[in-house]
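Supplementary material to the annual report.
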Amino acid sequence: MSCEDTTALLLDRFKGLASAADERRLEEHLAGCADCRATAESITRIWTDLGADDPGAPEQPVPSERMRARFHAALAAYESSAARRWRFLPERLTPLPLAAAAAVLLAIGVLIGHAWPSARDGDIAELRADVRNIGLALLDHQSASERLLGVAWAERAGTGPQVVSALLERVANDPNTSVRLAAIEALRTRLDQPEVRAGLTAALDQQDAPLLQVTLANALLQTGDASTVAAVRRLRDSSGLDPAVRDYLDMALQSGGAAAPPRTGI
Amino acid sequence: MSENSDSELMRQVRDGRTSALATLFDRHHVRLYRYCLRMTGNRSTSEDLVQDVFIKMLKHKSQFRDDSVFMPWMYGIARNACAMHWRRAALHPMAESDLDITPAEPYADDDHAGAEQADLVRRALLQLPPDRREVLVLNRYEFKTYEEIAHALGCSVSAVKVRAHRAMKQLRDIYRDLAGEVPT
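Predicted assembly:
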């Protein structure tokens, strides 16, 4: 054994837990190690002194009566407060009923949340209306760049009739070519709506710029609708049309849809 | 009375028969008081701690499981109560004169030298860090085997042995400082 084991073996000895082999090893080591003999002597003295005049020793008085009186007062107070508690609650809640109760409460909460429109829902609806008004106002703004922002918003805003109407208004009457082009592109995804097709068809006659004529004609031919094809034919036959646009429309009408854009000076 | 019957009584307390705690109090309050006194060195603090321990048993009775054993559970609560006491004591330290580590009766002259030495050992014990003091108190006074101590502390037997011999070495060093002895 090493010197490190001395204290542990001494503790085993004090508690009567050291085996005969441990005792022999300890004695042999102590016989040959002066340091450990000194350690053993001091530790044995401390262990003994810990037991002498021990404040917790049986001969020392314990204030049992006072402690008992305090304990019984505390117990009575606890029992009386427990008696006032709701009686339908079991004394000891196990995890399964707790989980079931939590699930039921959660379900009730979700149902109430869905059935009961909250003030927050109202706020959100109000906010959406405000955003729509701002978007529509942008579409009617004096500045072309603001109107382009309005078109970009309208493209994301969905298919509300007010939005479609505002975009068609831009296609027909906007003084800026870029805004008209952007509005046509925004409406291209809504060609399944009859009012969009009708509005773009009506706007075709009002376009003077070759680029707008070609873009709008392309969009209308995409639908394959007879009335829109007829409108494109009317445009092709109209007097004063740019020859490059006419050639392009011829080609597009023959192929039954959009064709590569013409080479115009624009 | 066997340990099982203590555990059975505590299960009754848990299941609503709180009056069974009175029997457990009668059986264990002296032992708990002595443990707290050895740990804190103060009689009135120890009385309060015993009270705390039994109130906590009531409050946390639902945590006593079917397979729980009463004695380690009780010592676990007592250890927490002592730790709480030391946290409070760190904020409001006790004066040396508040320690009740001398016997209630005065020493006879013949016993004086030995009693002074024992007094010094006890002061050294109270200067040990609480976790080391705890393992020594349990080892010296409370339990006969390391298995019981390991159960009460919730650690392995080998951990108890290591902690106990380190605590004993540190106690010896503190004792030497207090006694003005020169280390060998």
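Residues 103-107 of chain B have pLDDT under 50 and may be disordered.
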